């Protein structure tokens, strides 16, 4: 199946459109369990936005039952994957293999159509982010999905979305420079804000299908999702 390949930017990640050939159907409100958490309580409606500081969000409540993980620990896990590359078919990574083994893969194929086997050679930038969260034991506050748009909307609907490039934040890109979540092409982790209109990132499925450290202009950023870190 064809995948977009660009010489100077990562392959776009419209999994449902490119790989599965369907349109994503999104329900309103916070995504219900078991999509991202282990129990329905972990995905109950957000009480208040995290920035309000007056009440806990559902993700903050979920984090109380999880290992204490810092942003630097997440970046260390991601950094150790730098150099991992896909095969000539666009697959063969441990991130795709892991995702195919999860209950989430069965949920997303039911949602989007297609077969679990389609993920074997699918664009894997969101699978990489999801895998890192799983390795750290914070899946309920990192989320997991193979489709960047759905993943970004989950952060927003749970009150963990914003415009500040914090280290460890999940960063979503639109190569056309829009701020529209539905236009998201790609996802990775923020390593640092360079203070000059660029950020340093760690991304999967970038360049020629590898995990790489990159420098990106913030003009291409749609927004940031904020996992709960210690």
TrEMBL record:
- Stretches of the chain forming a coiled coil according to its record: none
Gene3D superfamilies to which the protein is assigned, alphabetical? endopeptidase domain like (from Nostoc punctiforme)
**The organism sits in which domain of life?**
Bacteria
InterPro entries, sorted? CHAP_dom, Papain-like_cys_pep_sf
* Domain Peptidase C51 intervals: 100-226
Entry protein name:
Peptidase C51 domain-containing protein
């Amino acid at each position: 199946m064809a995948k977009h390949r660009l010489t100077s930017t990562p392959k776009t990640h419209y999994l449902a459109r490119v790989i599965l050939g369907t349109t994503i159907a999104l329900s309103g409100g916070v995504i219900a369990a078991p999509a991202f958490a282990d129990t329905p309580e972990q995905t109950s409606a957000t009480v208040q936005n995290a920035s309000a500081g007056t009440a806990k969000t559902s993700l903050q409540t979920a984090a109380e039952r999880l290992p204490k993980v810092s942003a630097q620990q997440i970046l260390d896990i991601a950094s150790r994957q730098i150099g991992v590359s896909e095969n000539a078919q666009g697959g063969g990574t441990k991130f795709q293999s892991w995702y195919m083994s999860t209950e989430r893969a069965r949920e997303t194929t039911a949602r989007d159509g297609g077969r679990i086997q389609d993920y074997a050679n699918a664009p894997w930038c969101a699978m990489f982010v999801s895998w890192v969260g799983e390795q750290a034991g914070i899946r309920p506050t990192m989320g997991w999905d193979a489709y960047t748009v759905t993943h970004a909307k989950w952060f927003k609907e749970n009150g963990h979305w914003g415009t500040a490039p914090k280290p460890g934040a999940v960063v979503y890109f639109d190569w056309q420079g829009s701020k529209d979540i539905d236009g998201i092409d790609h996802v990775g982790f923020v390593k640092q804000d360079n203070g000059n209109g660029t950020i340093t990132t760690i991304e999967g499925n970038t360049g020629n299908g590898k995990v790489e450290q990159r420098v990106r202009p913030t003009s291409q950023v749609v927004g940031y999702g904020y996992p709960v870190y210690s």
